[in-house]
Amino acid sequence: MFGSYERGGMDFELNKTQKDIQKAVRDFTKGEFDKELAMELERKHEFPRKTWQKACDLGLIGVHFPEEYSGQGLGCLEDILVIEELCRGDSTMGSAVALSSFASELIMHWGSDEMKQKYLPAVAEGQMLSAGAFTEPDHGSDITVMNTTADKDGDEWVVNGTKTFITNGGLAGFYSVMCQTDPDAKPSYRGISLILVEADREGLSTADVGNKMGIHMMATAEVNFKDVRVPLSNLIGEENRGFYHVLHFFDESRVQVAAQALGIAQGAYERSLAYVKKREQFGKKIAQFQATQHKLADMATKIELARLITYKAAWNFDQGRIDPKLTSMAKMYAARTAVEVADEAIQLLGGYGYMTEYEVERFYRDAKITEIYEGTKEIQKNTIASAVIGKLR
User: Taking burial as the number of CB atoms within 10 A of a residue's CB, which of 118, 150, 271, 378 is the most buried?
Assistant: First the structure.
């Protein structure tokens, strides 16, 4: 972790609360993340419900929620410390538990008092999972255009459309759905609203997207809305401002995915390090070969750099500043680090690295998604480039 380095007002030391959180999650993963259980749930593509429930009971989910909604009143930095440690403990189980509250921040930042009281404690206490329904089959990463519509009918919204690749789809208790509410808006994203749709509403159905490369314990689904009626009061934030609410949320969620990637990278690195210190080839430990040492040096350096920018992005968000360039850099770099470090970890283990029971192949498969969801690495580069270039006259 960070050593103490303080000069000119910069402090790279975590405070006592942050260190306590880190230790609590680390102890939790050591006690609860059983390797055999992880392999079994991975095979069955099953959500780790009991482990998630225990994490909620310990107050590890929603640490950044206000205390009156069963959170700990902490910030984005404390939240990502939890995510990092969970994914370090186990890439698949950790990711599933960490993202059980996905997109609940939309309710925390923009929801009505009634919504916050109803849904935030339920998410933090493990009564339900949360989901954000943004991506559509025809638009992918482009959230400026929505085919999903919500029309007013009396005192209700009528929602129609299809969302795909929805994390926690089919398991979530509710969905925060991006809908076109003003079809005449120019540009069209100025007519998008966020509407909360409870999972048990008539006309809502989900279908699993099928077999995936990794994150096998997380549900990923297509969600269909056919004349789904919800009260007008289910509007999250302001009407026709949903696109901007989601952009604000992405500045937080990109850091969460960066933390997920960071934890996966750290976990893969530690497993390969332990292996090369024990395994002997040609009469000496693999760790004694310079080629191995250089690999480890590169891996450790990448992880440290990813940690620095991820923590900085989270800290910056907690200062009340929105900086898409910084959060995109953190997400892009940490995700790339996760993929490269996990790849190198397999190489260090050789044939064993390719075997399921040695875990690093699973870390590798789980790492790749961090380069794809919450905006692909190409989308992050677009965001960074537009901030760097500025407006061209």
Answer: 150
Contact 246, 107 (CB under 8 A): no
Dihedral in degrees, nearest 10, Cα atoms 282, 283, 284, 286: 30
CATH number 1.10.540.10 given to 6-124: yes
Cis, peptide link before residue 187, omega less than 30° from 0: yes
Work out whether the CA dihedral 100, 302, 250, 315 comes out positive or negative. positive
| CATH for the stretch 244-389 | 1.20.140.10
Residue 140 is predicted with a pLDDT of 79
Domain 130-241 CATH assignment equals 3.40.1360.10: no
Give φ, ψ of 112 to 5 degrees: -70, 165
Measured CA to CA in angstroms, residue 281 lies from 156, 275, 278 at distances of 70, 12, 10
Give the pLDDT of residue 343.
Answer: 98
Q: Is 374 marked active-site?
A: yes
Burial class (CB in 10 A: 0-12, 13-18, 19+), 340: middle
CA–CA separation, 254 vs 327, rounded Å? 6
Specify whether the CB–CB gap between 92 and 216 falls below 8 A.
yes
β strands within 181-290, DSSP E: 192-198, 204-208, 220-231, 235-236, 280-281, 284-285
- Cα–Cα dist 25/267, whole Å: 14
Phi, psi for residue 326 in degrees, rounded to 5: -65, -45
| Tokens 């925390």 sit on residue | 108
Catalytic residue, from 32, 105, 222, 374: name it: 374
Q: What is the domain partition of the chain in residue ranges? A: 6-124, 130-241, 244-389
Q: Are the C-beta atoms of residues 137 and 166 closer than 8 Å to each other? A: no
Per-residue pLDDT at 8: 54
Region of residue 390 (phi > 0: left; psi between -120 and 50: alpha; otherwise: beta): left
H or E element, residue 11: strand 10-11
Give residue 381's pLDDT: 93
Please calculate the CA angle 374-378-383 and round it to the nearest 5 degrees: 75
Q: What is the pLDDT of residue 166?
A: 96
Q: Is there a contact between 255 and 324 (Cβ–Cβ < 8 Å)?
A: no
- Tell the burial category of 156 from Cβ atoms under 10 Å away from its Cβ (0-12, 13-18, 19+): middle
Backbone φ and ψ for 106, nearest 5 degrees, come out as: -60, -40
The DSSP letter of residue 152 is: E
The reported pLDDT for the residue numbered 132 is 97
Residue 71, token pair as written in the block: 């959170």
